[in-house]
Predict the structure of Adenine DNA glycosylase.
Amino acid sequence: MNFSYEILNWYAENKRVLPWRSTRNPYNIWLSEVMLQQTRVAQGLPYYEKFIKEFPTVKDMASASEERVLKLWQGLGYYSRARNMHATAKMVVNEFNGSFPNTYEGLIKLKGVGDYTASAIASICFDQAEPVVDGNVYRVLARYYGIELPINSTAGIKHFKKLAREVMNTKEIRDYNQGIMEFGAIQCAPKKPYCLHCPISENCVALAQNRVHELPIKLKKLKVKKKNFNYLIFLDSKKHTILEQRTGKGIWQNLYQFPLFESESEANINQVSKRVSENYSNIKKYEISLFNEKPIIHKLSHQHLHTKFWIIEVERNLPKAVSWKSLEEYPVPVLIADFIRSF
């Protein structure tokens, strides 16, 4: 059986109709690939359409503010993708006269573009024989060939890339690469693969050994940390509040939030009052109430945020405050956006 032929045949019959598949424009392909990293197609599709509508070309994105890009990205998570994307757009415009490099070697030099994205753009847009290896491809190859090397180990990454290059169809690389990724997403799915009607099941090692749900193997992640977040929601008589922009290299860089302090354990009203007195000495009279008695748990890949929102009503007008109505203009983490909608 010819592995790549079966993948191409399956793709021709089963591929989903998606907007970026009707073009070879590297801007569109790049945008879709960045968005679909660690994001399901169903979730990423509305964002893709929103971005294409507001930024039809890479020049449009490059000329936009980072704040606007982050606002449109709000809800997709892993915001470094959006910041890198904006930086890449500027790089393409300023250094490449608005045209993406047409080779893998040129593409991988762009900010935020790694092996997978460079391979995808090079093959889909420019027919360059470069294999793509994403989560779906890892799964298909690991199961079909019965590979036990962890996909997130150095040895595993090298082995799968080498194997992907050996089995790819170089003559129809564009459809083959899209086909094997689609095959992994739909046919050889993570939890409920359709092995009974799989065109390559006859030679699948994992199926023969009853190990489909064991493969691929992944090294255990680092221990997830628990953090206690306390947001201070100041409100004056004019319905103005205080908003701050996050800085540094931590989570949600450059996004906006309400004043925040972390506590070692679940905070109480006395700790909040002390925090306000120490950091906001110009606010003399205020009343504190707790919006949510039970902490809201916001799960990130490496930490779980146990969050309380403290409402602090003040008598005098707040200095350097913003109106509550204007909050929707600011890019904020989903955790904050959800609170604003429910408050």
Summary: The beta strands are 225-235, 240-241, 244-245, 256-257, 260-263, 286-290, 296-299, 303-314, 322-323. The chain has a mean pLDDT of 92. The chain has 14 helices and nine strands.
